Amino acid sequence: MQRIDTIVDWILTERCNLNCYYCLQNADTRKAECGPVDYSFVDNVDKSVLFHLTGGEPFLVPNLIELCKSLDSNGHYLSMNTNLTLPVSKFVKEVRPDRFLFINASVHYPYRMQHMEPFMRHYRELRDAGFFVYSTVVMIPDDFDKIADFIREHQSQGLILLPKLMRGVEKGKLYPDSYTNQQNAVMKELVASAIENMSSDDRERFRIACEHNVSIDNWWEIDTRTLGGTRCFDGLRYIRITETGDIVYCDGKMLGNIKTTGFATLTQLCICQYEDRGLCHKNI
Ligand code: SF4
Question: Whose C-alpha lies nearest to ligand 1, atom 8?
Answer without folding.
Answer: 23
